[in-house]
Amino acid sequence: MVGYFRKFSKEMNKEKPPEPLDFFIWTVEDVGLWLEEINLGSYRQIFKENGVNGEYLEGMSMFTTEQILRFIRRCHMKWGDFITLCKELRRIKGSDPLPSFALFISLFLLLLLLLLLLLLLLLLLLLLLHFSIGSMYFWVVLVVKTTQGYDDLLLSS
Known about the structure:
single chain, SAM domain-containing protein, SAM, mainly alpha, transmembrane helix, DNA polymerase, domain 1
């Protein structure tokens, strides 16, 4: 009879999603239920295989960019799904779990902007060099032709 109640209790817990207030003590199974609740149930098995529990989710706020990328690769997550996961974590946690991810995106965009500026500067330098060489060629030709004209004048006199 006790086994029946234990089994019944487990069945009841499977139907009931975990309480968000204490998500840091969630088990791997609780995380799986929560993933189903936020429409990320396709990751339930891989999260279970990687031992992702509430404590792990809590620690994600301290992840470095490298750790975030490793987590995404290990769990075969799409970027959009990872963003959804983080938004839902922020919602239940009441704070942003991903400052390093936001920093990563900001630094990536800054690097991209610097690269574009560098390419623009290189293009400008090439144009300047092209026109200065063309301009120098023009002046050399002008001086040579002018000198030839004077030579012809001097020789004919």
